[in-house]
Specification:
CATH superfamily: LURP1-related
Shape: globular
Oligomer: single chain
Distance between the termini: 27 Å
Structural class: mainly beta
CATH class: Mainly Beta
Number of strands: 12
Radius of gyration: 16 Å
Number of helices: 2
CATH architecture: Beta Barrel
Length: 208
Amino acid sequence: MASAGSSFPGSTNSLSVIGPQYCTPYPIDLRIVKKVMTISDGNFVVTDSAGNILFKVKGVLLTFIHQRRHLLDAAGIPIVTLQSKAMTAHCRWQAFRGESNDPNNLMFSAKTSSILFVKTKLHVFLAHNTKEDVCDFRVEGSWLERSCKIYIGESSTVIAEMHKKHTLQSILVGKDNYMVTVHPNIDYAFIVALIVILDEINHTGQQS
């Protein structure tokens, strides 16, 4: 099971997966806007509560069963590549550093907890957790209601939670808005990556 200050780089008070620069000593509210009416599906913009752009997500269609997403920082530099893994019993995504898909640059993987999807449940394993006996993080909740919480391992410790936000603009221009509150000292880039994976699983019909 993952724990801040032991399995993660950075200070003893932070929980960093992608990078300690994405950990803040205070809660951070993120607004994730999915542009669903675009030629390239799977594009997102992530801002803070003041409207400052923090990340962008670009989708790349490889095949119908193999997807790839790039998480870019505000300057447009790729920091994470998210890629689905085909031909597995469980829906599985892998996250690599930068634009790589080299196993040596694997940061974490995520898979649905069962083949039958009654509700949203995602297990997340850091790269060094090769046995995958116990997950390092898990996501539970209702994707239909956009009400999900992210926990450390199998514990009751919540590190982030999301809910859906409807606005008149989102209805008119075809955008899907998610509000995510990330707790203090938690890697918010990692949280965004998990939300993107969840959205893709839901979008492809692999998760109810």
